[in-house]
Every structure is written in structure tokens, then in C-alpha cells.
Amino acid sequence: MDYFLELFLGGLTRGSIYALIALGYTMVYGIIGLINFAHGEIYMLGAFTGLIVASLLTVFGLNQYAILVLASLVAMVYAAAYGYTVEKIAYRPLRQASRLSPLISAIGMSIFLQNYVRLAQTSDFLPFPALIPDLAFMEPYAHIIGSAELVILLVTAMVMLLLTAVIRFTRIGRAMRATAQDKGMAMLVGVDVNRVISITFMIGSALAALGGVLIASHIGQINFAIGFIAGIKAFTAAVLGGIGSIPGAVLGGFVLGCTESFATGYVSSDYEDVFAFGLLVLILVFRPAGILGRAAAEKV
Amino acid sequence: MTDAGKESGGMTTARAVRRSLLVSLWFMFLTLPILVIRVNPVAQEIVWRWRNLFLIGVGSFVLSLVGQFLTHRQTRRTPSLTPGRLAIFRQRCMREPQIYVPFLLCAVLTTLLFPWFFSTYQTNIMTTALMYVVLGLGLNIVVGLAGLLDLGYVAFYAVGAYSYALLNHHFGLGFWAALPIGAGLAALFGILLGFPVLRLRGDYLAIVTLGFGEIIRLILENWNEFSFGPSGIANIPRPGFFGLDLSLAGATVYLYYLMIGLVLFTIFVVNRLQNSRIGRAWIALREDELACQAMGIDKTRTKLTAFALGATWAGMVGVIFAAKTTFINPPSFTFLESAMILAIVVLGGMGSIAGVVIAALVLILLPEYLRAFAEYRMLLFGAVLVIMMIFRPQGLISSARRAYKFMPVPVAAGRNKRHGTAADH
Amino acid sequence: MGPLLTIDRLCMDFGGLRALDHLNLSVAAGEIVALIGPNGAGKTTFFNCLTGLCAPTAGEIHLVVPGRGQRLRLNGLPPNRVTEKGLARTFQNIRLFADMTVLENVMIGRHCRTKAGVFGAVFRSAAARIEEQQIVTASAAILERLGLGSYFNDLARNLPYGAQRRLEIARALATEPVLLLLDEPAAGMNPQETAELDELILKIRSELGIAILLIEHDMRLVMSLSDRIVVMDHGEKIAEGTPAEIRSNPLVITAYLGEDLAQTA
Amino acid sequence: MVGDMGKNVFRMVITAFCAALMWGVASGSGQAIEPIRLGVAGAHSGDLASYGLPTVKAAELVVKEVNAAGGILGRQVEILAEDDVCKPEIATNTATRLISLKVDLVLGHICSGATKAALGIYKDAGLLVMSPSATNPELTQSGDYPNFYRTIAADDAQARLEVDFALDVLKVKKIAVLHDKGDYGKGLAEYARKFIEASDGQAQVVLYEGVTPGAVDYSAVVQKIKRAGAEAVIFGGYHPEASKIVMQMRKKRLPTLFISDDGVKDDTFIKVAGEYADGVYASGPRDVSRNPLAAAATEAHKKAYGSEPGAFFLNAYAATQALLNAVAKAGSTDSAALARALKSEFVETPLGRISFDARGDAIGVGFSMYQVKNGVYVEVRQ
Question: Do C104 and B280 touch (CB under 8 A)?
């Protein structure tokens, strides 16, 4: 039973990592129905920016909390800027094109950004400082759940609540929902669709960067390729939960994390990813819209 | 950047410069941390590379100016419906035998005599390129014709390669016996993949096929007893020539002609398929799945045929791949490979045979000849994908539907004679 | 001779919403029946249930093909099987295969009446060659009949609107239906085009002997064309009868027609 | 405009294509044999470039020295470096290209998979190949590649050392064997498992598992190690995964010993794992820091390139020396004569005085165990 609980907690923390990245994915998909393959790369860029800022600040001798906050903030600002630029260059001109074109463009962008960082920085793994401090009150429970894991879990929950609130209760949230439903109609009733989409990309990218900094400081290392696997897993989580749904992304993350954890614990980590993708195929076959997603009926 | 041209006429140079200045400032801001600062936490050092910032600034300024200039010129010209000069030229090339016959003859001669004029190395990479031509044409059936976005195509390639390697290793099966078996097994896997994804559409299909591709690779990686795991299978024999053991150069030339044959066969088959009952059903499925069903087309069977046929080619090329490299292991079959083949189809023009052939040759040969820029190869590859999608989403050569020729049939009654507008071609 | 198509207490629920409520309807061979009713009355849902695009919640759909005699149960069949049985349809919002040529669009309709497979296509066996030739000839003949003869090799997307509507009908005819379902065929047409459509539908009935069930809002067309009219509202049938009967049915007038009828009458 | 631009682009493409072809022809048809051509193949670009480029630099340094001293047999040595990105399918192109360029000897390839794919081609061309880094045991043990030599010990030797160390020095009874599912790591883990199982009950493998490289955490695997009651973990793979596993083990208060391989004996591992790295064992090439030749080679690298040498630098340095020495001793570049010279002659290299055994493995090259103490790897003296 203990073993089960430990695996479950491990799955939960892993799931919250996926969820944090999946939130941005699902937002973008919800609005323009595009698999933003470059999202994982924005996460990686965020982590790199965080590393650079943290290294600079360490030289100035700031304290750990200040470094964590500043590095996250700068990374988020930069990621938002990258998200905005990527959308404007690679996706906006293709808004009227067939569904395939933006997807290919996204794959191209992803490859481009990966290699941009590889060439500008390095292809080696870089150590990432443990920015999240070890909390004293967590000390007795450290063998069950670490401080960094707890912080990630809490941040994921907070971000999910915040996003849900923003989408439900604010002006921009309303505009987002309108755009998601029908771009043409939204435009007619005075929503600046381009602006809404840009803002969505910026929020999603900033979240990815926040995830990047937190997760990198938990794992302790980064390189240019971390975005690919994180992106694929996060996307799987988003689809599992029902893409476009904010709580769905978090739920999907948890389901995926726990599946992998139990697969490793009770079967073998050799086939961990086979289980993850197998679950995805199964869920999509029996519930094509995901766990919390609504099936969109085609109008005849 | 894109709306610069809309204010046609009113655009002054000063404004363009100001705009470009903004663009360049933005990109300098954007690239500041990644391109300028390099940290090395191991050695505890920070390197500042201000020169990069300067280069980015100047580069993006110039590019933005040029871009604005071009869009400006384009919008100022009155949009005309007549096709561009290039299009006319192309049409003329296609139509007039005195132009295309010598050209074609030249191309055929070059292809046939290639191994005699060029080194083994050149022949070898040309063979590689031809393999991608076939892969592209195969995926073209699934993506270009049937409109099913398959991101796990490389799985079938792996199935083909491993069929030959394993059959040869365990049972000593030769290349020619393995070729149809590999193709058949790949087709079977295509159907296997096809069943669960029948109900899925568009993006969901894409992600599930991607997952399927990964699953195949993971199984090959982990199931040592079956596939020898990551250390792969070595000493796979090259194809024999009527029992003769060929030297390296001989085998390379032989493989080259084999691939030429396979390319021709593939083009022949795909060309016949796309103008057949099945091919039309695929295209209808791509255009409108619902209407397609309502017109009496069995969606399940049509999709499965597309998956199976597409996979068949991948399986065949997989067998040849194993025979060519003589060694295979799972890292040769990653998602990036699928992306590469997909890029060939999309860049070439979905559904266009000629386009796919050209795109495969360009995408595979160019990096080989530009080995000096190897570091930037993937960077450029990514950029080219994006740029192509923005400026030429229909690909290098957009596909054209077959025109059927008829004797002019007199219109039955007089009541429908009102169209003189339809331009026949 | 009994009816061609019999629909018995057909129900369709979407979640809690009842789109069709115990609908009964029949169409005789060679008959032209119009289905009218306000927007959202459930007319298109009804078509979707008939053609297998939605699975009805309850009720029975039976088709008796003249000459074959058998009573075929249609509910639960996938759309392509329904088409094979002899029901063909057009769509309210035109759904042509836009990037295929006009001729090819019609050739798609021949798909379910032909059977050449992959091998036939690749090796061009004699049977496949003959079949392909027949597909082309038959399709061309249908296009000629519908006055689309000059568009053969044009892409469907480039056709004028009225011609696109006619092409949808041509495509449906190519499946050799016994009953043709037309979903608002005159929508967006000018009076002249509507008049031509009127003639065309009558010609299809008289020359090919195909029964027609159509949804239409253009009352002038409905009144001049139909043998019988069925009025729907809120998923229920509220009236049925000849054009004259419907015109004078007070229930219909209050529920739906009102001014429209006053204009036509 | 469109037409114009299209035409220009078209013309440019044609010109570029022709130029490329001409260049291909020109480079394909070399002239009379003047210099000794040394092909250097490996990953020179892409993610694995950091493993391949040091070899090029090592070859350059040795060749510079040799050429300055008048070359070999009166002939200068010329280096032809070709990239294989560590992919088997590219490696076959690289190999045929080197053959087209008429190389006499090949230093490479870097990765075992790429090496296997290329070796068949070199064998047909009668070329001798020496790798500084391909550790797959089959390369020398299968007998399929008589033309292959290497200046690094094979994986089985490394696994043997790790297992012996765990059993005889650390005296552990229950061992968990993990790997990263990669060519190198899994191969090593397979040998480790085999050796432990063959130890007559001295110890047992309580867990054998591959971890997914690049996964965000390994807590489930760590739980499994705990449940299996392993006293030591033997991990086959590279440092990114190793540091994650070690950190999570220690954070979960798991004192299990951690033994790993050359891929983990890297300073980045210590930097990443920080305090948690202390006590970790890793096998690595024998400490040669007291060998004056090694110091000189490293110094030469710093002088020429301004940085510390990278992975496999000394192995590549030794390999280049061994190859060129064999040419000098054999008096020709004939592969049979070279093979005889390699097996009979000893040569002084940064790795020590080496020669080659019948299978092609270097004699006198081996591994020893290291342990992290206070943030540095220290050789364990037994």
C-alpha cells in the first residue's frame, strides 16, 4: 500500500509538470485549433533565459528568493515576446490556409528554435541551479515529496484556478471564448481577434517559461532538446484531458503522470512510454474528445 | 510587417526606415539573452558576445526594409488575373514537344549514365535521395491524396528494414525474398494502425500516428530478444545480382539502378492510382469526408487502403535501406525522419508527383553538398519549412487534376445554352 | 404498389433535446414530396437520419426498391450503405469536392456502382478499363443532361453558384438512386435559376422515374412542384396534404406560413 | 515581379547545382598519390558534435607535428575530415565519400552504430580503420571486422571492472542494474547483468530496467530500487540521466551505492548533482595525468585552440600516433602490412606504451574506478 501511495505521489508530481506545460498548449489549441509544436521549444527557451538571468544575478550576489522570482519573471517576459513573434511570423499569415500548413509551419518553427539555441548556446547539458529553496517545514516529509515538487504542484493548481477565473470572468477571457467559438462572429461584434490570439500566445508562452524555470531547477539540468519530449508529453496530456479545456489539461497531466508511474512501478520502465502512448490511443478511440472535452459535432 | 503594403502610395521611405528600425530593435531585444550571453555554469564564466547583437540588428533591419520594399511593389501593381511569366513558360514547356522532348531525353540520359560519370560516393547519395523520393511518393498517397496527416510514417519504414534484417539473420532469407515480405508486413501494420484511428480526424489523427511511430521504435529499442535492442543488427547483406557477390562499387551501382527502377515503378503506380476509382475516392475523402460517405464511398475501406498502400512503399524502401547501410538500429527511425518525409511531401506540393520528386532531391542532396554548412543544416531546414508555408503553401508544384478529352457533344436541348464563360483547357 | 420509403415513428434526441418526435412519413415511387417548416424544425436532422449521418434514437426506416421487391431496413446503416441501397442526397450548404473537376465529382457518384480495385487500377485490366470508360461516359451523360456539359474539366470550386447546386444534383444522380433527397436546392438562386431548377426536377422525375423528397423554403417552387407537402415544426409533423390543402390549412398558416402564403396565393 | 523573381531564383538554383556537380567531379577525380591521406570521420555537427570534434583536433595536432618533422616516408600527411552526425545511414555516405577521396587510413568513427555501418564499406575497399571511442564489444570480438582497431577498452571490460569492484571491493549482495535504453548504456548493462549472474551466487540482480532518457523525473524507478532492497545500483548510460537518478535517490533518503561508467565520469555530472554526487563510483580510462606525453598533448591543445580538450581527445591522439607509426614501420599504406605493424610494434602515446592484440583491441589501455570525493573524481586505489 505504501508502495502504491508513493508511486501515486510520484505520478502526481510528474503529472503536475506535464500539466503546467499542457496549460499553454491547450489554451492555444482552444483558440485557434493549432497544435503549436513550438510550445515545447518556448518552454526550453524559458528555461535557458532563466538560467542566464540566474547566473547573472548570482554574480551580483542576490538572495535565492529574489533570484527565483526575477529569473522566472524575465523568462516569462521573454517567452511571451517569443510567443508573440512566433505567432506573428509563422502562424498569422496562415490563418486562412488549410489545416496542414500551420502544423508544418509549427514543426519548422520548433526545429528552428531548437537549433537556434543549440548554435547560440551549446549542445551539452548545462547544470541548472536549484533555485527553489528547501523549505524547512518540509524536511520531515522530504522522502515522500520534495520542496520543489510541492512548489510545482501548488503553482500548477494556482495557475489552473487563475486561468479558469480569467477566462470566465474578465473581458479578455470573454473575448477569448468568443474567438474560440467563431472568429468571424467575434470580429463582427467588435472583438480584435488578432489581439486576442496574440495575448493567448503570450499567456501560454509565459506559462511555459514559468514551467521551464521551475522544472529545470527541480531537475537540475537543461539542454536544447528538452522541449521536444516535454512538448510531446504535455500535448498528450492536453489531448487526454480534452484539448481546449483548462481543467482537462491538468487532469490529463495527472492521468498521464500516474499511468507512467504505475507502469514503471508495476510493469517496467522499459515500456513506460509505450503505456503512455497506448493510453492516448485508447482514450482517443473510445472518447475522441478526451476525458473532459466536448465532442464537436460537424454541421451538415 | 505584413500590413506595411496596405497603405499603398502613402508609404514614404522615412516611414519604412522607422518601421524597420522598430523591427530590428525588437529582434535585438528578443535575441539579447540567448545570442549575446553565454553562461557556462561548469566553469562559472559568462561570455558576452555583443557582436551578435550588432549583426542581428543590422540583419533584421536590412531584411525588413527589403521585405517592405517587395510587398510595397507587389501591392502597387494592379493585380492581374493573367498567369505570371513563369507559369506561362511552364505551361509552354509542358505542351510543346520540341521543348520538353529534348529536356526529357537529357534527364533520362543523365539518370541512366550517372554512375559512369560520377564517383561511388555521388552514386551512393543519389541512391539515398531516390529512396526518399519513393518514401515521399508513398506518404503522398496518405497525406497528399487521402488527406490523412500521418506523423508516424517512419514506423513502416522501420518495419520493412527490420523484416529484412531479422528474416536474414534468423532464416538467411535473401534480399529479393524479403522485399515483398517487408512490403506486405508494412502494409499489415498500416492496416493495424488504420483501424483504431479511423474515427479520428485531423490533429488527433496526427498525434496518434506520432504515438504509434514512437511505440514501434520503443519496442524495437526495448525488446532485445526480438530486435537486438539499441545495438542494432549488423552485417545485413547487400542485394545479390543473380548469385554474384558484387564489390562495393558494383553493389552501389546496382542499388542505384534498383532504386531508379523502383522510383519509376512507384511513379507509374501512383500516377495510375490517382486517376482511378480508388484515387478519386481518396481525394474526395480529403476534400469532404462527410459528402464522400454520402456519395456511397466506404470510408473505412478507403482509409485503410490508403494507409496500407502508403505503408507498402515505406516497407519496400525499408528493406532497401537495411540492405544499403548493412546495419540498422532504432535511432534511425525517429520522429525527425517522419518530419523529413512529410516536409518532402508538403514542400513538393501535396498530391503532386513531380513536386515530390524535386523536393526529395533538393532536401536530401542539398545538405550533402553543403556539408560545410552542416552546423546550420537543421536551422535552415526549420526556417525553410516556415518560409515555404507562408509564401508557397501549395508547394513547389501544385497538383493538377486530370483533364478528360471529349468530342464536342451537342447539347441536347436548346434551353441551357448560356455559358460562354467557361474557359476550357 | 406500396410506398417506396416508409418512415415509422422516427425519433432523434440530442442530449435532452428532441429534434425529431415520432415522425411518420412515406414517399411513393415517382412522387415529389416537399418538407417545409420553420428554421430549426428538424428537417435537415431528418435527412441526416435517413441517410445514416446520424443514428436515430428510435423508429424505423424502410425502403422498398421497385423491381427488387425486398423491404430493406435502413436505420443503423452507415451512409455509404444507405446510398448503395438507393437513397442519394444533396446538402444545404454545398459540399462539393472543391479541388476536383466537375466530371470527377460526378464520377465519385459512380463509385458505389463500380468495383475496380487497386490491382485493376494499377495494371489496367480489361475489366477495369471498360469499367473506367463506362464511368466516364455515364458521368458525362449526366452532366450533359443537367446542362453542365461545358464545364467538364473545370475545378468545382470555380463554378458559378447555380451550376454548383446543379452539380450536387448530378453527383447524387450518378449513384443511381430510387429516391433523391434535396436539401434546399433553390437556396440563394435567382428567380430564373429557380425556374430552371423546377424544370430540372420535373425532368428527373419524368425521364429517370426517380422519386424526390425535398426541403425547401421557396414556397412558389414548393407549390408548383410537389405532389404532396409535409409541414414540420419542433420535430413533429403538423400537417400533410396536397399543395392546395396545405395552402388552406389554418394550422399551417398560423404556425408557419402566414404572409408567405398570402404572397404566393 | 513574381515571374522575374522566380526566373532569377531558378537561374540561381541551376547555377548552384551545376557548381555543386562540378565540385563533386573535381573532388572525385584526384590526381597522383602525393600525400598520405588520413580520413577522420565522426560527428562533427549536430547534438553529438562534442564527442566527435576533439578527435579532429587531436589528429590535427599530431599531423602538424609529424609534418613539421618532414612527414612519414617522405610524404606529408593530409587530413580529410568528414561528418557522419553519428547516424548509421549518413555514416555509409561518409565512408564512400572518404573512399572516393582516396584516403589511405581512417580515424573513426565515433559512435558504435555508425562505425558498424561504415566498417563493411571500408572492408570492401581494403581500408584500415581505428576508432578512439567506439566501445561496442562486437566490433572486435565478432571477427566480422578484421580491419578494425581501437584505442579504447570495450564495454565488456568496463562492465567486468564495475561488477568485480561491486562484488569484491564493495561486497554488495543485491544489485539493481539500470540503463538508459541506448546503444552504449544498454550494452554495458547487459554485460553487467551477465557477469553478476555468472558470479555463483556471490550477488544477484534484483532489478534490471531501462529508464526513459529525457524523462522529467525518475521517482518511480527510485521507488522500485528501494522496494527491491538493492544495496548498489549499476547504471549504464550518460550523466544527464545518472545525475537525475542519484539526486532523486538521495532526496528520498536512499543510501544505495551508485556505480556507473565512463559516460558519467564527467565533471558536468558533479556540477549537476552537487552535494549528492559525493560517494558515486564511476569507471573511466586509467588516470594518465602523470604521463608526460598526455600532459604535453593537453598543453598543445590549449595552445592551439585555447581550451581544455574534449571527450576522447587522448584516445584519438594515441590512435593517430599508432596509425602513423604503423605506416612508418610498414613502409607503405598497404593494409596487410599496416596490420602486421600495428600488432607487432609498440608506440609511446599519451595513453601509455600501446600495441594491438589479434582482435584489434589496444593492449595497455584500460579502465580504473573513480569515486567522487569533495566534488572531484579520485581514482580508487585498491
Answer: yes
Out of B276, B298, B401, closest to residue C80 by CB: B298
Chain-centroid distance of CA D13 in Å reads 39
Considering only CB atoms, which chain D residues are within 8 Å of A143? 251-253
- Burial letters for B116-154: b for 16+ Cβ neighbours within 10 Å, e otherwise? eebbbbbbbbbbbbbbbbbbbbbbbbbbbbbbbbbbbbb
- In this structure, the answer to whether residues D92 and D9 fall within a common structural domain is yes
Q: Are B114 and B242 in contact (CB under 8 A)?
A: no
Q: Is the pLDDT of residue C126 over 70?
A: yes
Q: Is residue D15 part of a domain?
A: yes
Residue D274 domain-assigned (yes or no): no
Q: What is the CATH number of the domain that holds A133?
A: 1.10.3470
pLDDT digits (tens, 9 = 90+) for D333-364: 888 888 889 888 888 888 888 889 888 888 88
Asked if residue B27 lies in contact with residue B95, where contact means CB atoms within 8 angstroms, the answer is no
Number of domains in chain D: 2
Instruction: Tell if the CB–CB gap between C175 and B296 is shorter than 8 Å.
Output: yes
CB proximity D47 to A under 8 Å: yes
pTM, entire model: 0.86
Ranges of each domain in chain B: 9-76, 120-391
- Residue D24 to residue B375, Cβ atoms within 8 A: no
Within this chain, do residues D161 and D301 fall inside the same structural domain, yes or no?
no
| A119/B214 touch (CB, cutoff 8 Å), yes or no | no
D146 with D181, same domain: the answer is no
Q: Measure Cα distances from A26 to A35, A166, A249, B316 in Å.
A: 9, 15, 7, 38
B29 to chain A, any CB pair closer than 8 A? The answer is yes
- Read off the C-alpha cell for B161: 528494414
Tell me how far apart the alpha carbons of residues B219 and D116 are, in angstroms, rounded to a whole number: 22
Give pLDDT tens digits for D55-93. 999 999 999 999 998 888 888 899 999 888 888 888 988
On whether any CB of chain A is under 8 Å from the CB of D215, the answer is yes
Under the banding of pLDDT at 50, 70 and 90, the label for residue B88 is low
CB contact burial C87-109 (16+ within 10 A = b; e otherwise) = bbbbbbebbbbebbbbbbbbbbb
Contact D113 B85 (CB under 8 A): no
In chain D, which residue's Cα lies nearest the Cα of A259?
D220
Cβ-in-10-Å burial (0-12, 13-18, 19+) of B224 comes to middle
Q: What's the gap between Cα C241 and its chain centre?
A: 20
Instruction: Give the tens place of pLDDT for each residue, A11-48.
Output: 988 898 899 899 988 888 888 888 888 999 999 999 99
Q: Enter the C-alpha cell of residue A183.
A: 472568429
Q: In Å, how far is B158's CA from the nearest CA of chain D?
A: 13
- How close B277 comes to chain D (CA, Å)? 36
A107 located within any domain:
yes
Q: Give D32-60 pLDDT, tens digit per residue.
A: 457 899 999 998 887 788 888 899 999 99
**Domain assignment of residue A299, yes or no:** no
Residue D249 belongs to domain spanning: 156-261
A-D Cβ pairs (cutoff 8 Å, strict):
96
- The answer to whether C79 contacts B409, with C-beta atoms less than 8 Å apart, is no
Q: What is the CATH number of the domain that holds D217?
A: 3.40.50.2300
Domain count, chain A: 1
- Asked if the structure places residue A270 within a domain, the reply is yes
The reply to whether A293 falls in a domain is: no
